[in-house]
Records
---
Amino acid sequence: MDRRQVIVGAMSGVAALWASRARAAQQAGGVGRLTDKIVVTEAGGTNVVAFSTADGLVLVDSGAVKMWMARLYPTYRPNTCLISNGLATMAFSLPGAFAAKLVHPERKVLAAMGDGAFLMSAAEIETAVRERVPFVILVWVDGGYGLIGWKQDIHFGRQAAVSFGNPDFVQLAESFGARGYQIGAADELLPTLRKALDDVYEFLVSHPQEVIVMVIQDEGVTPQDVAAQFAASGLDALVYRGPAEPPWPTLREMAESDQRVVVMAENNSSGVPWYHQAFEVMQETPYTFHDTTQFSEAPNRGGTTGSLLLMNHWIETAPMPKPSNAAMVNAYDFLLRRARRFQRTRGHLPNFVAVDFYATGDLMRVVQTLNDVRR
Ligand SMILES: Cc1ncc(C[n+]2csc(CCOP(=O)(O)OP(=O)(O)O)c2C)c(N)n1
């Protein structure tokens, strides 16, 4: 099944807590009249703050959710928080998030909406799944038009015709081929959001030309554990299922067939057809170098038979690797020279270069140079 990023949070479990916090805020100075019907929330607001610092883009729907997001969600750059204001049309945030993700595929996009607004536009999840556009929908669930109920309370002292029943939102998301999560307490919100926003799957969906090779350091993890996690995350739909030996498909062929994740285990891959024994597939260099004079291109695990070549390229220090070493060995000239030496010794450029602190130094520039040479 084709699964996508959609988060559906049923918040009713913490409604009372949040409403009472909101009442405390009201007593402390003027947030308007609030009732227990109003779910959302200082707790939600502060949790979502973490998202705003991470260059995210949030679209906020009309409803009580807007009142709280507008008050509590800090923005640091223009146009990173889009709110349905003015005529305040409901249900804009879901298709709005879709459009925002198309325009900014590299950014994390979140639609924050009430259950009323969500149910007006939920069918667009099908479009998002079909078009492979991953974004996250956070639904505040209170089984009613909360903002309208709030206003009715203020004007009439009672509420009329603002309550409705809801489907099971997690099942609804799943039935579209999206992923659904239910959040039962405020402190679950941030970890769940992170999970939905940050995973490899999101990256692959939004970067359809990218291929990823994973080598899982699987001490204490069975192949069946790995397979279960791949199934739960949706990644199993994208794994490479061909033979892990020459002739390998080209990267373009892998992208076109959408088999873009090559998965290997350091130790045990038995019983899962797309999972391979890393050092039957790869050959590598040693990896325990304590200073730069010790770098060696000699065969290590995988001997000289593996069809993919791995160059290990970092300085070992206990208990943690050091960025200062990475700056030295990931520098352009040093790293390029080692790759050339590897090529002379092993008869081929490395297919993989393993480093510490990949963003320190010039790794990407070196790889670019090497790839140009190979073309
Ligand atoms: C298309 C549209 N219909 C009606 C309204 C009036 N309206 C504003 S907020 C709201 C209720 C929103 O309910 P919900 O999405 O569940 O959010 P909550 O207020 O419960 O957080 C309504 C009906 C509107 N703004 N836009």
---
Amino acid sequence: MPKIKCSYCKKEMEYNDLKDIPTFPFCSKKCKLIDLGHWLNEDYKMEVPAKLETESFYDD
Ligand SMILES: [Zn+2]
């Protein structure tokens, strides 16, 4: 059986077909959500300065 490692927790998973892992490339929904949340947080941090600029523009 081929093996892959979860993109988040690096746990090894065996599979016959990638269809066997609906959460690919993660071992579980939990890892998928944590990883997705991580990226969303990164995006959010990058958006904050732009939002503040927009708000001060409207204050004037
Ligand atoms: Zn995992």
